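Notes from the 1:1 (GR / supervisor)

We went over the backlog. Supervisor wanted to see one worked example end to end before approving the batch request, so GR pasted a single chain during the call. The sequence is below; no edits were made to it. Supervisor asked that the structure be written out right there so they could see what the output format looks like.
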Amino acid sequence: MTQQRFRWYGRFRKTIRFLSLFLLISALFAAQGQAAAKAPAPSGLDTRAIFERYADRIVKVQVVESKSGAESIIGTGFFVSQKGHLITNYHVVSKYIQFPERYKVQVLGRTGEPRDAVILGIDVLSDLAVLKDSVPADAYFSLTAADLPQGTHLFSLGHPRNISLSIVEGTHNGYFKQSSLKQIHFTGSLNPGMSGGPAITASGVVAGINVTTAGNQVGFLVPVSKAVDLLSKTRLNGNTTSPDFTEAVRSQVLKFQESTVPDDLIKSGKTVRLGNYDLPGQLSTLFECNADSYVEPHKLYETVTHACSNKEDIYISNSLRTGSIKIQHQLITTDKLNQYRFYNLYSEFFKSYGGPWSGSEEELTKYECRAGTVEHNGAIFKTLFCARAYKKLPGVYDVAFKAAALGDRKQGLVTSLYLTGVSFEKGMLLSRDYLEKISWKK
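Structure output shown during the call:
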């Protein structure tokens, strides 16, 4: 073989290798295309099928102002019986429960025609209500106390911002452990208007009821077991008007206090050191504490603030929430102010109110206060005890207790306890224990 033929043969072998590699790559791409064609349908199609199958079990719930007929609150509900019983959130219908003479409750199905509904049962703590539509339901969910594992894929249905019935995908991320009010952490885009709608599995098992959102894919569901319990306790009769639920709200709030605010709450809690004082700190594992400091721009004084609070938030009405407990300590120190200017500054800190601002004049009386001076553990304190009553819930109060240490020209301590939704006796007891928990050391 001549040198020329040898060179031609070498080029021919390279061409064959290139063609073989090209054919192999083409075959791989073809195989991938066939595999993709045989792969399961994307989840979007599954979501569409779920929506089409269960949408007729969902209604819009609205509370309307009786005289004008205009919407005041909108939410979502879902049928749980052929007779037209449905579940929604208590907060969706709370305005009617508070002021039945001014509002009425309606449901709207797919046709959009409003129908009057009655309320048969409520669970204020779990934020649930049982309603009865004026017509039977063509389809409904059969509720069971399902306890699904973390990571379960869920589909939430509701009317976000009163746009239209929508479906949202998300994930069951376990139970929120920082509250005694059991809720499921739902990673999905819940929005106002979806409250009261169901969160279901692909097979239609209700896992929970939409209740609230913190934004950024952080939502919460009431576990379906709470709805099962409420249904079992509710008389599913033929009522044509809603009963008066005032006493039910009152008794449920006080019952919650008895189970979550024990008499020894302050005594058994931890303490925190601030300046020369040992003070009430984290009262239980349900409380979160944080601290901060501030130096006045001209460095005339410095403050250190330490606060602890629980995560309870019981919805009574659009303007009134209860169940919270907060403690706050403020240590004010100065090297620049004379005693008169420091006294004026100190007085302003004592007057300031750092507790929960909630409720309207229709719902709450004004605070009534009693001031005093107490000598305790080697220190003298100016004290203030204040209480306001819930007008529609006899025996339920908000309480504020404040104390300011006296006698030091360079340093002052203002400490506060705020209680919401407690009996007057419980407020007095915990305020006394709060003061007794404070100790002073040089």
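Supervisor's comment: The CA atoms of residues 269 and 329 lie 15 Å apart.
Batch request approved.
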